[in-house]
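Response to reviewer comment R2.3. The reviewers asked that we include at least one raw input/output pair. We reproduce the pair for Heavy metal translocating P-type ATPase here without editing.
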Amino acid sequence: MMAHSLAIPRLKTLIEHPDALAAVACGVLLFCGWLSLYWGWLGLGLLLLCAAYVIGGYESAREGLTTLWEEKELDVDLLMIVAALGAAGLGLWRREYYLIVDGAVLILIFAISGALEGYAMQRTERDIRSLMSLSADTARVLLHGQEQMIPVAKLQVGDRILVKPGELIPTDGIIVEGYTTLNEAAITGESLPVEKTVGDEVFAGTLNGYGALQLRVHQPPESSLIQRVIQLVKQAQTEAPPSQLFIERFERGYARVIVVCGILLAILPPLIWGWNWETTIYRALIFLVVASPCALMAAIMPTLLSGIANGARQGILFKSGAQLEMMGRVKAIAFDKTGTLTTGKLQVVEVIPADGVLESEVLQVAAALEAYSEHPIGEAIVAAGNEPQRSQAKGAEVSSVEQSVREHREEKIENVLSHPGLGISGEVDHQEVLVGKASFVCEQSPFCESGLGEFSQQLEAQGKTVVWVARRNQVLGIIAVADTVRSQAFQIVSHLKHLGVQQIVMLTGDNERTARNIAQDIGIDRVYAGLLPEDKVNAIRDLQKQYQTVAMVGDGINDAPALAQASVGIAMGAAGSDVALETADIVLMADRLDKLVAAIRLGRRSQSIVKQNIVFALSFIVLLLIANFAGNITLPLGVIGHEGSTVIVILSGLRLLRN
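Raw output as returned:
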């Protein structure tokens, strides 16, 4: 039952990719044709091999002839077809039918290569569908004091729309009435909700908090930030990288040289050296077979596939072999901050009590009140209070805050009131408690200690959010909350520099002070702060002008355009959004940044093996060509040498399977 359930999706995947289906059919027909010839069924064997030629070589022949007709260029696809047909023709002429099998093998190799390439490129449509899920379909428009739901596409500049708590902002706009906090993590990567009031701009795709808003549409919906993100992803994924253009030019140049040389070998020797035409054609066909780039092409794909398999065992998912090779050439790496270099979750990082107050008491009082708040800062304080090691810090013998709140919630927590943008107040055990900003707490607590104020300024200078706690007009202490850096971030940055990465930068929508503090702690070379998605793309482009090959590591929707623009896009597997995972070329499973170092080492090793294989393949081709020109090689020996060099190159590539 299990095998059957697994087979169905694999069959579906195969059917959805015609190139893969053609390669499988070609392989089956080739094997059956070879068996038929081996058993002496000549007619059936030739028929099956003919079918293998047609099915496996149709796409390559079509592309080669299209390129020849429309662009007046030769490519390797057409050269492969010519070499295969030449081998088949010579096999029929000399009744050496194994040559027909050899031609079919050449076609099969290219069919498999084309199927793998096609499968790796079919992601753009899924990326765009994931991005579109961020956009609301309708908006609540206010007309003559009445609410009316209309499609977002029909909104016009000047329309006034209403956004209720918990709803997505349908389009970019300016707040004309209301106050709230917005979760902009999907757009800017900012980990904390951002306070918004009259006059502030809000972006489509961000999530409204607790306050109702009235917005004025100030630009057409198609010009909204989220729509620009979609367009950037489309543009970046359709642009061919320079390496791809170079490979295409090399293939066509190689094909032209081989075809021209083959024609000259078939014509000139009888005219210059008096060779007979049979010998001349025989040598020309040997030339086409031994010069066929099978070994050259096998120098790359088996190596990259082995590297992909090796990476998968280590929790590194490469979506294409080209990106594995590209990793070996990375000269600069750009990191997103929130969720990549940091955990993406707010945590209490420091508690400073006032004189005569225990740290656990500050946490207990604050968490008891914040348990009634849905603000992320409040959740971090409650979580810290529930940690046994924190609640019992400095010798305090108290139960967890969660248990205290649960036991006394009804009779001891009363009159809880949220003060938007300031904090929260209430009564704990019939004593008034204030938790929030310094201005809010100290305004009602005249005995604010100057020492805590100095600590607060120091913590804020480090990019941390400081919460003040007071009870009965007496300040109990301050709590610092921050998005904490991943424990391995400093070590990873050090390893990357040791590997020779020339520039490591941070791209973030967060404020510059927080970003620079984190960058200084972990050794980042350069910081770009306060960025929107399109700004991150521009930063990647600037880096590419300086360092050519640039990797981008991110996890959020706001990182998708930059991931697509980068030479190599790398997403965090566990924390990454669907769009980031779809757009990225490489996924680090389980959010382990140390695998980034392993990916670069694997890329450089694959690049080294590919270079070795290319040198070997070209050298062997040259040796076979010299032997052919000297007349010391027969067609069977040429085929054996050609296929033998291909096997050696493939085995060399499989070395990458070893860790």
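The chain has 27 helices and 22 strands. The radius of gyration is 33 Å. Further pairs are available on request from the corresponding author.
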